[in-house]
Amino acid sequence: LLAAVIHGPKDVRLEEIKKPQPEDEEVLIRVNAAGICGSDIHIWKGNLEVHYPLVPGHECCGHVVQVSERDTTLKEGDRVVIQPNFGCTSCYLCRMGKDNLCPSKVRLGVDIDGCFAEYVKAPARYVWPIPDEISDQQGAMVEPLAVAVRAVRKMGNPLGKRVLLLGGGPIGLLTLQLAKQTGAAVILADLVEERLALGRKLGAREVLDVNKCDLAKRVMWLTKGEGIDVVIEAAGATQTIELAIEVVRPGGMIVLVGLPHGTVRIPPTRIVRKEIEIQGSIIYSYDDFRQSIWLIREGMIDVDSLITHKFPLKEIGKAFDVLTTARKGIKVIVKP
Ligand SMILES: [Zn+2]
Ligand SMILES: [Zn+2]
Questions:
Q1: Dihedral over Cα of 207, 288, 55, 335: its sign
Q2: Which ligand sits nearest to residue 86's alpha carbon?
Q3: pLDDT tens digit string along 256-274?
């Protein structure tokens, strides 16, 4: 079967690999559509520590082709999406229902072979059936949307809040829609014109081009000097965190959902004096995933507008190029 195998930094090859053999409580899935995520790019560039060779990919929609005998929840032919971080089930965090924090969780496409292939296997407990109303490419968007669902949940009740969203990538644009729909007014900041334009279309109250304005000044002006209720960092940069501390209002909150490399120098007294709440948000819970499927099925969130490019799996090299060298596109989908 055909798979995109990464052998080292910037070395992706299309190869025939052995079909994964599902073991107990695992299902084998034929991949219909898979989204390229920032982390796949990091793996391809060699910024993320992984064992090569590796098949990346974790945003996946497909259908079940084989189930283990004991599994009764899924059957062959079911259209499904994979929740791609597999908790160990037995540590105290998994037992608390916090499998997103499991220290030994297995990440599909990072720790084990992922879905940039014709077939992928996954534990049945992390495979969700989806209804027919959700297309394959929409199914591939369930995972990033679940990340956004959690981030918005972390900010508490968005109703009537002023939100500054730093970063208009896929997670940012999904977060934007959720925050807006739940009653927040969102200012989107990014440095890519295409993302800002889409952000405006998807309901941003203001869009700010970081290259063209003094962001902090502009934000303070827009809020009449009061500052922002909730800043959501979805750019994965470190400078944005310093900015967030500057523009958040006293008693406000900063939600960190991006994963920046490097460190930030934060003056602790600013956090104390302003009583700033800093809240991390990592991947999703089962419930975030369930809601994400529901939101797409109900047509509440526009995921299709984010899909700017589609490639057959054979052209995965081109797909990576779009997101890196060309720095174009928002969500790129590959279809095996
Ligand atoms: Zn992802
Ligand atoms: Zn665990």
A1: negative
A2: 2
A3: 999 888 888 888 999 999 9
Structure tokens at 257: 């959902």
**Nearest alpha carbon to residue 37 among 323, 308, 305:** 323
Query: Which pLDDT value is given to residue 303?
Result: 98
Please give the distance, rounded to the nearest whole angstrom, from the Cα atom of residue 144 to the centre of ligand 1.
5
* Residue 282: alpha-carbon gap to chain centroid: 10
Q: Which ligand is nearest to the CA of 102?
A: 2
Q: What is the pLDDT of residue 216?
A: 97
Residues 79, 83, 84, 88, CA torsion sign: negative
Residue 205 backbone dihedrals phi, psi, to 5 degrees: -70, -40
- In order of 240, 249, 257, 267, the CA distances from 264 in angstroms are 10, 20, 15, 10
pLDDT in tens, 294-334: 999 999 999 999 999 999 999 999 999 999 887 789 999 99
Q: 218 C-alpha vs ligand 1 centroid, how far in Å?
A: 31
Q: What does the pLDDT read at residue 70? A: 77
Q: Which ligand minimizes its atom distance to the CA of 171?
A: 1
DSSP class of residue 307 equals E
Query: Cα(289) to centroid of ligand 1, in Å?
Result: 13
Check if the beta carbon of residue 186 is closer than 8 Å to that of residue 172. no
